[in-house]
Amino acid sequence: MAAQKKKRxxxxxxxxxxxxxxxxxxxxxxxxxxxxxxxxxxxxxxxSIPAAAIINIEHERSASSExxxxxxxxxxxxx
Length: 79
Description:
alpha+beta; two-stranded antiparallel sheet; 4 strands; 33% strand
């Protein structure tokens, strides 16, 4: 059995044109609704999000801006 390659830590924000962002959100919503995993490529890396991922919405406010984050969180499988 081949050894699992250790993934590097990563913290990336990627901006998308509105039409592309909406298309990704629709695919995500469809997968969540159907109880299926969701796959997305972000900055060249393909990510597979399991159907059991925890979904939450975060709101942040500072003196100069506000931010909403739609988050999906899941534990990594140990191999």
